[in-house]
Design a protein that fits this description.
The protein has helices at residues 2-21, 26-36, 80-93, 111-116, 141-155, 166-175, and strands at residues 44-50, 54-56, 59-61, 97-103, 122-123, 159-162, 180-181. By secondary structure, it is α/β, with parallel strands linked by helices. A five-stranded parallel β-sheet has the order 5-4-1-6-7, with helices on both faces. It has a two-stranded antiparallel ribbon with strand order 2-3.
Length: 192
């Protein structure tokens, strides 16, 4: 608990630094505000970021799980869907919670996550195409803005359940939270 408290205090300093480096444009806020302005209607909004790697938006990203894993690897038999759904169920039991889900996977591959939230508000920003912010060579400005909008919305959640990814880690830094990493124990408390 002391380590988490220290990390939280350090993340607040990082958040101040990030806010001085990055200021969202009006164009970006036009994408994020319709979702983030609804967050006030809930005690907690939990961000869920699933990044598994592979072929994304005409770019290759290092696999995060399985036999071809090349980055922050979990055991090949690790069931990421089960971990996320169990953790989300834990958060649902806390009451008055909503989720924001984003991923490098098409929405239909996230069915298990959407099913566990039955009766709970889920925010999701549809995209023309999922792209990798710095690896997709042919992304349009709209695709890039949609990806950055996911990052900014994720940063405004109260806590983040995340796969190994600098995308969600920097969103947590910007938002000033300490995320729960895929495979860690999902605490029944608010990371603040």
């Amino acid at each position: 608990e002391n380590v988490r408290r220290m990390n939280t205090q350090f993340n607040m300093w990082k958040s101040v630094m990030w806010h001085s480096l990055f200021r969202p444009s009006k164009e970006l806020l036009a994408l994020t505000d319709p979702i983030t302005k609804q967050f006030v209607n809930f005690n907690r909004v939990i961000g869920v970021h699933v990044r598994l790697g592979g072929r994304i938006g005409n770019a290759n990203d290092v696999m995060r799980i399985g036999p071809k894993c090349g980055h922050s690897c979990l055991p090949a038999d690790f069931d990421w869907k089960q971990w996320f759904t169990n953790c989300m169920q834990t958060k649902i039991q806390m009451g008055d919670v909503a989720f924001f889900i984003t991923s490098d996977r098409p929405k239909n591959e996230l069915d298990a996550l959407f099913k566990v939230t039955k009766g709970v508000k889920v925010f999701y920003l549809p995209k023309n195409r999922i792209v990798h912010t710095d690896r997709t060579p042919d992304q349009s400005k709209t695709e890039w803005l949609e990806t950055v909008a996911d990052w900014l919305i994720l940063s405004k959640t109260d806590e983040i359940l995340m796969s190994p990814s600098s995308f969600s880690l920097t969103a947590a830094m910007y938002g000033g939270s300490v995320p729960t990493m895929l495979g860690e124990k999902c605490a029944n408390q608010i990371n603040s």
